Amino acid sequence: MSRKVRIAQLSCGPEYSGVQKEIYDAAEAVDAEVFFPDIALADVERAVDAFGLDVRSADLKLMIARGKALVDGKVDADGVFIGTCFRCAEAAIVRNELRRYIHEHSRLPVVSYSFTERTTAGTLLTRMEALTTIARRRALLAREEQTGITMGVDSGSSTTKAVVMKDNKIVGTGWLPTTEVIKSAEGTVAQALEMAGLTREDIQAVGTTGYGRFLIGKHLGADLIQEELTVNSKGAVYLAGHQRGASTVIDIGGMDNKAISVLDGIPGTFTMGGICAGASGRFLEMTAKRLGVDITELGPLAMKGMGKNVSMNSYCIVFGTQSLVNALAAGSSREDVAAAACHSVAEQVFEQQLQEIDIKEPVIMVGGTSLIEGLVYAMGQLLQTEILVPPYSQYIGAVGSALLASGFIQGE
Amino acid sequence: MAKVFIYPATSLILSDLVARFGHKPLGAALGIRERIQTAGVDSPPLQITPEEPKRGLKYAAVEVPSGVRGRMAIYGPLIEEAEAAVIVTDADLAFGCMGCARTDELILFSLRQSGIPILELKYPTNEEEGVQFVAAIKKFLAGLPNGGEA
Question: What are the residue ranges in chain A where pLDDT is below 70?
Fold first, then answer.
């Protein structure tokens, strides 16, 4: 049995929010243990002075002192979880600066999260799992080439994707909307195998990721079941041909978004949000439906419009749709509305998530929404950089899974 | 005997002083530790569930962070119960401390609004101030109904 991964918790308010048990439960579910770096009371003020951020809350001072102890090597950990109360400005400043400080001065993977009393272990699970993956599978994550014949399946909240790879090339793909999780997975696997001209018996190793990873992983007898944060990072830098050095991966998904700061293919800091579906692919689906176009047509439509002509910046899918309907009723063109919807999603991801990681070029956009060129354009405008969309970007999780699964081929 | 809210609520010294002068201290019974091995400096001595931040809505609106509301679910009823209060500001962490500055602001405001007798003192920085500090607390407590000598 492998030793438990030790995750240092730097936090303010989890106990009084009633969510400390949820944090413990999430860690336990991925065979990790959360601990509080042991700090002498006398060291707290000294550490805060050295850090230079003059905060008033004692628990935030404690967070800073603990973060410094980790960076100074006084306390050993495999990963860091930074959590503070949602809507606390003072805590948000500390959370962000501490996250940046640890990222810049150590190799420790960091995840930060702002919780409410409604935060559950389920919400934290993927984040905790990613921390343990980075600690346990660093060697596997260093894999840069796919070997043999492997398959990756990504069971996402909106769509299920499958990819068959052979000798470092994608030879088959499958894509279906996620309805019944297992049925959708079986359908995409059949599509990918048919395209590859292979059978299930030819596959030497299988990897699964996404929301349904455990269920389909068990069903398919997967060799690798891994959360999408590390898998997508790996898939993104692999497909973008940028496996070495720093990069930023943005994946605007159907239900949540991932922003990952990557170094040599391994996530350093990452966020997974968001608070509302207003900043997800789901909103763009609804926009396409209301405009009477297929989701694949939304991007080209948006490129013809001017987003600035329509006011649409909502943190809520309902209000976002409301402004969309109002704009159309006021005579705005479909092109302008499509562009505004893309800009709105990009802006929210920019404001809510990209501020929590360090943006380093190249910025790679992946996932199904990366095919919506209006969204990629809007993100590029906001970040003032050219966004890289690699080939097969919509299959990112499946490609990452297939790549990593090749590490499980017997004899490897 | 008066019920006296103490601030910082975790201060064992204040708690002890109030009890010595025959009153009931209202605060969090929490020892001062040399090392901090819990989530916060004022980690709760009792089980807090997600219900506490909801109960805290009586004292702070929903947009106030859950940690503030969770704390107010504990301290709010004590403030309502209090007949007097001793507030020590700028206290050293070792004297007793509260984890959240926003909660502190709300606690102090609630106490000042309540109309109960309040003694507000700055934490002493030398021996002379220390003597005056204890004397002021003693005088205040002795002046409360049914206060006794230590």
Answer: 1, 274-279, 313-315, 410-412
Residues A65-106 have pLDDT tens digits of 999 999 999 999 999 999 999 999 999 999 999 999 998 899
- State whether A117 and B37 contact (CB < 8 Å): no
Cβ contacts of A78 within 8 Å, gap of 6 or more:
A5, A6, A7, A32, A108, A131, A132, A135
The Cα A47–Cα A71 span in angstroms is 12
Query: What CATH number has the domain bearing residue A205?
Result: 3.30.420.40
Q: How many domains would you assign to chain A?
A: 2
Does any domain span residue A178? yes
CATH code assigned at A107: 3.40.50.11900
Which of A12, A18, A116 shows the shortest C-beta gap to B100? A12
Tens of pLDDT, residues A148-207: 999 999 999 888 999 999 999 999 999 999 999 999 999 999 999 999 999 999 999 999
Tell whether B101 lies on the interface with A, counting CB pairs under 8 A: yes
Do A130 and A146 belong to one domain? no
Q: Which of A112, A136, A160 is the endpoint of a domain?
A: A136
Nearest Cα residue in chain A from B96: A58
- What's the pLDDT at A373? 87
A173 in a structural domain: yes
Q: Are residues A68 and A127 in the same domain?
A: yes
Strand ranges in A187-337 using DSSP code E only, listed in sequence order: 205-209, 224-225, 246-252, 257-263, 266-273
B94 in contact with chain A, both atoms CB, cutoff 8 A: yes
CA-based nearest distance A41→chain B, Å? 6
Tell if the CB–CB gap between B102 and A90 is shorter than 8 Å: yes
Give the integer Cα–Cα distance in Å for B91 and A62.
16
For chains A and B, what is the number of CB pairs under 8 angstroms?
136
Q: Is residue A314 part of a domain?
A: no
Whether the Cβ atoms of residue A7 and residue A131 lie closer than 8 Å to each other: yes
Nearest to A58 among B52, B68, B99 (CB): B99
Q: Report residue B139 CA to chain centroid gap.
A: 19
B61 touches chain A (CB under 8 A): no
Residue-range definition of the domain harbouring residue A25: 5-136
**Which DSSP state fits A174?**
E
Residue ranges covered by each domain of chain B: 3-142
Same domain, A73 and A21: yes
